[in-house]
């Protein structure tokens, strides 16, 4: 049974302070001066201490995936014949995030915990310490299309918060958090999910389409002439989970160093390069095709639900104004033409 | 929780030079791989590389490595007694039962011989499991031929066509691309299965050649190489459509493989 409370902003800050003694608190925030232009802010996920740290006016540029899957993560250290797995911050963690991102993390769970024969221990050890505090979306942002992707709702949260400006409503679903909010006023159930976005798409069913012909379609050539392979759509996407292993030696001693994994992206040069100079998807449009198919077709065929959650970040960040929903819509039109519907 | 990313030390037992740039390293190992599986070879400080297990027996396994970059060059300076690191074995390999009672034709291009070598040895040791057994082994030039001495021994149990794209003055053997030899191959009665392994263009034209000669897609097995980083189904580099080559491959039935579009 959930309970609902209403708190003043000050009271909520005191709760955050109390929670901060037991939990690492992560949420959407600004990182001053780290943006694309010098002096501009970038928004992403990081430690927060108070309500004023939370960036709630917009959608973050980077997604919360880095809370569980850091941009760069040391897997182990080596020193001559010793190999020592890297330690990590093992405090229990609360992440403040929106419903689409909770659904995005479910996609990361699918790859890291369930694809292959065993879970990824580095992801798992962080994941098992995380509780979600859902940030209610009163209305979506311009580029959101979570409703179309069936990712606008989630019941996978410990608490849900409505930030009203002059106070905070909290639904407490995980009873272990009830004591923290005991000082709040009892309130009525409030949580609602967005049910329509400004942007909507209809994901085509490609099961009857000749994929060979689809892959040869001229739209991919057009994307080749537009996409500059910067990979921002990959790095900002909450569901992109690819990485590359990298060894780093300290100084000149090759036997002393660490092995890391770093984010990789299917739009970025070198993703498929093999010895002998052979690579796949040399053209940027083919990479757009590969990503699109993965997000709205291949993943579902393997796991039963779409990878893309419609957060719209890839649209927000693309310097070439390539719109992913537009691409999905075009694919729908082409597939209808191909199957004569 | 098990940590599959941690490589384990493996001692080098011997090093055999096959060609100037392809050497076979025999490792002391308890990995117990299957035919056609691979491992992630690891040199801390240089990185990791997926390498097929070219042969194995109790307590040992062979890697036949071409020196092309950081990790592979790093292995080439090592000698017997030195230690490399590895994790695995990974991937789905060949199932010998599939070929029992049938004719088997294997077609390999260059280093593509490495992933099938253990299977060749298996069938030579269990020759009665197969009817006809033929190998079309292609290399660029005489200097690129791998396992030369062993290939001569294989002639006792299999019909071996060893061919090079370009011969030289000393070369007395066959020449021409493997596809030409597929075109001329005299098939035996009864069902024939084929295995094709090699660089992407060679695989493409060899499978086409086999289809033209009446071998069905279902009767062809291929082994793919893709860029791989983890071998565990996590890093995404090897994915084609909804298929992860490191998990469902590298060995595939061609009826499935030909539907995989990069
Ligand atoms: C399933 C499988 C089995 C293989 N079996 C063998 C084998 O038996 N013998 C053998 O010599 N090689 C084999 N390879 C290829 C081998 O993995 C690459 O040659 C090796 O990764 C190159 O590593 P490097 O550090 O020496 O080169 P790098 O310095 O990393 O790079 C040299 C070149 O290789 C490319 N490359 C990097 N990583 C890979 C990769 N994982 N796969 C392919 N190319 C890559 C780079 O982009 C670059 O073009 C296999 C590959 C796969 C996927
Ligand atoms: S593909 Fe774009 S819209 Fe979909 S989850 Fe990734 S960033 Fe969000
Ligand atoms: S953000 Fe835009 S330009 Fe950059 S790789 Fe993605 S689609 Fe291409
Ligand atoms: S090699 Fe990493 S997913 Fe296959």
UniProtKB/TrEMBL annotation, chain A:
Q: Read off the Gene3D superfamilies from this record.
A: Alpha-helical ferredoxin
Q: Which InterPro entries did the record assign? A: 4Fe4S_Fe-S-bd, 4Fe4S_Fe_S_CS, Helical_ferredxn, Sulphite_reductase_A
Position of the signal peptide: none
Q: What Pfam families does this protein's entry cite? A: Fer4_22
Query: Which PROSITE patterns does the protein's record reference?
Result: 4FE4S_FER_1, 4FE4S_FER_2
GO molecular function list: iron-sulfur cluster binding; metal ion binding
Provide the alphabetized UniProt keywords. Iron, Iron-sulfur, Metal-binding
Q: Which residues form the 4Fe-4S ferredoxin-type domain?
A: 217-248, 299-327
Protein name, entry field: Anaerobic sulfite reductase subunit A
Species whose genome carries this gene: Oligosphaera ethanolica
TrEMBL record, chain B:
A Gene Ontology molecular function term of the record:
2 iron, 2 sulfur cluster binding
For this protein, the record's InterPro entries field holds: Cyt_c3_hydrogenase_gsu, Dihydroorotate_DH_Fe-S-bd, FAD-bd_FR_type, FNR_nucleotide-bd, OxRdtase_FAD/NAD-bd, PyrK_electron_transfer, Riboflavin_synthase-like_b-brl, Sulphite_reductase_B
The keyword Chaperone is annotated on this UniProt entry: no
Q: Which residues form the FAD-binding FR-type domain?
A: 5-96
The answer on whether this UniProt entry bears the keyword Magnesium reads no
Name its co-factor(s).
Answer: [2Fe-2S] cluster
Q: Could you give the cofactor binding note from the entry?
A: Binds 1 [2Fe-2S] cluster per subunit.
Its keywords, alphabetically, are: 2Fe-2S, Iron, Iron-sulfur, Metal-binding
Q: Name one GO biological process term.
A: pyrimidine nucleotide biosynthetic process
Binding residues for [2Fe-2S] cluster, per the UniProt record?
A: 230, 235, 238, 246
Q: Which NCBIfam families match?
A: sulfite_red_B
Q: Extract the PANTHER family matched here.
A: ANAEROBIC SULFITE REDUCTASE SUBUNIT B, DIHYDROOROTATE DEHYDROGENASE B (NAD(+)), ELECTRON TRANSFER SUBUNIT
This one is known as Anaerobic sulfite reductase subunit B
Q: Which organism is it from?
A: Oligosphaera ethanolica
